[in-house]
# Entry
Amino acid sequence: MHNKSVVDIVEMKKLNKKIVALTCYDYCFAKIIGSTDIDMILIGDSLGMVIQGHETTLPVTLEEIIYHTKCVQRANPTCLLVADLPFLSYQSSTEEAIRSSGRILKETRAQAVKLEGSKPEIIEAIVNAGIPVMGHLGLTPQSINIFGSYATRGKQKQEADKILSDAKSIEEAGCFSIVLEKIPSALSSEITDSLNIPTIGIGAGVHCDGQILVLNDMLGMNSDFKPKFVKFYAELEKTIKDAVNEYCSEVRKTEFPKQENSY
# Structure
């Protein structure tokens, strides 16, 4: 089986095949999900919250994205690997955007980068440098200080019209797909029907060409975090706690290690 490419992902929309993606940050999990039928792994700057414990994605650096993408790539998954461009790695100039994107591809063997917002000039420059770009519209977490909250975007007509217009602009600039985050289902349906490139939804309803969730979220590893768009496909937080408590109990009662666990 060949490694999926951006061409394969675009083709899936033409064939009306749903695209399945997950956000993942490390070798251990990438090795597991890389052996499944997943189409795409995103190494997202959400690692700032999920892995590092920050309140936002803003502190994540380009070096940290590169480090985590290398970890995921070492699992040799056959799906498409896309890495986030973190805050301030692409906004200041097209030259910096190309340099940051190029470093990711050169140093990690990811096949594409993702950036937030409507930045057609920057996207076009990166694509012209031979680097595939995934867009990201709707709720864009790097702009949290402008939005003021993680509320749904595009509920009002003026904002919805701008998101639709932005989607068309960044498609024209060369994006091979667009993440639509936390926007009304009707709006994501309209955008999906308006574009030739795939839309990947997170909290954007069933009409997108594909879906993405953070792996840790869908595995139920943080029961305190369950927004409406997340479904727990497992409850690993409880499983892990139970396993650790059982280990603690067995060690204290000298039930572990047994003879079969000893040399």
User: Anything to note?
Assistant: Residues 53 and 146 are 21 Å apart (CA to CA). The mean pLDDT is 97. The longest strand covers residues 133-138.
